[in-house]
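Lecture notes, unit on binding sites. The following record was shown on slide 14. It pairs a sequence with iron/sulfur cluster.
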Amino acid sequence: MRSSDYHHPTRYLSQRESNNFGILKRERKTSFRGAIPAEAGIHFFKNLSGFPLEFTPYLIRGGKDTIQRQMNNISLTIDGKKIKAKEGDKILWVALKNGIYIPNLCAIQEKVQPSASCRLCFVEVEGENEPVVACTEPVREGMVINIRGKNALRLARTSAELLIASHPLDCGHCLKNRSCELQKIAKHLGIKLKTKRFRRLERNLPADKSSALFIYDPNKCVLCGKCVWVCQEKLGIGAIGFTRRGFKRMVSTFQDKPIGESTCGQCIECVKVCPVGSLAFKDKNFPSQKVAK
Ligand code: SF4
Ligand code: SF4
Ligand code: FES
């Protein structure tokens, strides 16, 4: 784990305190248009959660100084290419914006706190002993990043092979064939979809075809969480969420109802963000079948 991850404020927060953090952010947005005086923020947060004062500087990220720092342009090198970026942007988004592909499944640019759960976006940074996760690591002035370092590739390949070991391999019949992020990642990392390194573990769950527009096949889900984030956090609908634990973890509806009988409003936003064939339009020619970032 990177030291910057460890010191991130939300690592110290309980659920209640995380909610408070959300309230604080909303409050900043609505009442202060993105910036609050530090004292007001500390006072506000302490009143809500009793959170130790020494951590509050991490939490109070508004104010002119911070905004000024985030706006700074910096130079760095990714894969030998000189790049200009905004200080504090995450390596993954800087690389993708500049046409350099780093494998990723769980990253959503709008998400304030990346889940960093797929562990596919490892890169190496000159001067660091271990590979770092590109979706959480901010860029710094003069950084030299190698996306094809031996150790980073070894870690990313292991993550991808573990995913593939529990993924049904019927690409020929899949609605996302040729627009699937997992196919792209396997190709990029030079691994076969029929990898034999790990024992195959398939779930054999029934596909949910109850929606008029899309199919949900839990067997193909890579648990990236994008659909859940969109439905719950972005749209505030909450028709789907994660249930169960361990190998049985899956995306489901309240009381495991078929999607067509749930509170789902068929807005299809979840289908648009699913990187694999787990949520796919019944009509292959549906204009939004292409995976959105
Ligand atoms: S279609 Fe819309 S409402 Fe239904 S599960 Fe997906 S995001 Fe939620
Ligand atoms: S259904 Fe798709 S978007 Fe949702 S968690 Fe699974 S792979 Fe990710
Ligand atoms: S994209 Fe970085 S861990 Fe998933």
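Take-home: The domain at 200-281 is CATH 3.30.70.20 (Alpha-Beta Plaits).
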